[in-house]
Amino acid sequence: MHRFTRGVLTAVASGGLAIGLLPSAADATPGSGVTGTILSQSTIGRTDYVLREITIQPGGTTGWHFHDGTLYAFVKAGTLTHSDHDCRTDGVYRAGAAFTEPSGPGHVHVGRNLGSKPIVLEVLYVLPHGKPLSEDAPNPGCPFQ
Question: Is 89 a member of any domain?
């Protein structure tokens, strides 16, 4: 699975409109310790494809959020702890793992770095044209951010 996802990420990166390395803060609150760099971006029809490298520092969190389109991720380094709106850990992804996040406000989630080393993710966002990379969401009542 991770070869397929990594292949898709690479294909979009090499075939998309390269816009350089653009550092930015993560797009969810109350996230902390997260930075992202857009590696490639292109629009085909009414769909935006954005390839981004995200780094989450030890103790960092993406903050609660959801996406308006599907997200495909590959863990390059570290271990990501992923939790859903029921406060359950729905995935622990180590280096070499790939995962997807479905779209919509019914799929609120948070990613956290509970380890001692930075997490590095390669993420492909497949979004309706003009939509943000993520939409902020309130903590659904979990004892963690």
Answer: yes
